[in-house]
Amino acid sequence: MLPRLFFGLALFGCLVLTALGGGGNNNRYSREVNEKETQREAIEFRVLKLNQVWEKAQRLHLSAVKLTELHSDLKMQEKDELNWKKLKAEGLDEDGEKEAKLRRNFSVILAKYGLDGKKDTQVVSNYINDGTENDVLDDPRLNKLWNRAKSSGKFSDEELDKLWREFKHHNEKTREYNILLDTVSRTEEIHKNVISPSEDEVKEEVLHGKHTELKEKIRSINQGFERLHKLSHEGYDLASEFEEPKVIDLWDMARMANFTERELESFREELKHFEAKIEKHHHYQKQLETSYMKLKHVEGTGDKDHIHRNKEKYSMLAEKTKELGYKVKKHLQDLTSRISRGGLQHNEL
């Protein structure tokens, strides 16, 4: 009986020691797994330079909405860069035009959010709300039109909000045009110093592509300004087809493309779905702004439980806003490509 008892106790002791030792190893393993998970979460993008931009942006005083917008733009850039790497591996970008366009798009993103290191870059920072009080219109003509519209009495508060979105959209298009123009000017300087004739041919094609893009952008800008001028003086037409600036642009472009009546009608229906997607994104942006303001207020109270709940809600809204932002930009890219394939009829400027 006693030998059995001693054997049982000895076995139990070994099991306890093994469990304790194993627990230590398990804890260490869990810690390593958690550390790896944290590192993985910190790597937002598969392209190194995009991660660097994202990390830099988080150190700046960008609003909550601007950060989610930047994230969506970087996601689109990542998608395009990874697609380009596949094309390059298959030898499908011999003239380098797709690579050049990627660089231009990246320059636009950096300038848009004040991440290009230029002192004169205007970016909305240190503000939570992206409303009319905090944004700046670069063109004095736009400021004049906006002030006229505000004081005209022709617009309700809701219509003024809608009109301001159109002004901001136009302002952004103008900024992108100026960045592209600057890129083309610098490329042309390099182009003058080319020695190899074969290299010269390739760069000529790239420059032609850029000039075509410039023409398309300036044409869109001129049309947009005419629309804003008319709106500021006459107010909104109740029978207008669409309300969102991006959708209005797409519809104008589609009507000038070589679409059949049936294709145009199908495109109109798709634009309605796209507009609904944009409105949903705007809704989440507003929710995110409100959540951010509430979180900042709660953090001042020191109530840990309350802070934790608000942080969770804010994180959830930020993720949803990023996701919707990416879907909107992806859909916009797809619709724009469809119009291009439809064959826009461009007049020489």
Can you give a write-up of this model?
GO terms for molecular function: heparin binding; lipase binding; low-density lipoprotein particle receptor binding; receptor antagonist activity; very-low-density lipoprotein particle receptor binding. InterPro entries: A2-macroglobuin_RAP, Alpha_2_MRAP_C, MG_RAP_rcpt_1, RAP_D2, RAP_D3, RAP_sf. Residues 137-349 form the Alpha-2-macroglobulin RAP C-terminal domain. It comes from Microcaecilia unicolor. The chain has 349 residues and is mainly α. It has helices at 2-42, 48-59, 64-89, 97-112, 140-152, 157-192, 197-234, 245-256, 261-299, 304-342. It folds into 3 domains: 29-94, RAP domain (Receptor-associated Protein); 138-240, Receptor-associated Protein; 259-343, Up-down Bundle (Receptor-associated Protein). Helices cover 78% and strands 0% of the residues. The longest helix has 41 residues, at 2-42. 19% of the residues are buried. The model is unreliable at 14-23, 121-134 and 344-349 (pLDDT under 50).
The Rg value, from CA coordinates, equals 27 Å
| Overall shape | globular
Cα separation of the termini: 106 Å
Q: What's the CATH topology label of the largest domain?
A: Receptor-associated Protein
- Please provide the count of β strands: 0
Q: Please tell me the overall pLDDT.
A: 78
- Strand percentage lies at under 5%
The helix/strand series, from N terminus to C terminus, equals HHHHHHHHHH
Low-pLDDT sequence parts: 14-23, 121-134, 344-349
**Which CATH class of the largest domain is shown?**
Mainly Alpha
> How much helicity do the residues have?
over 70%
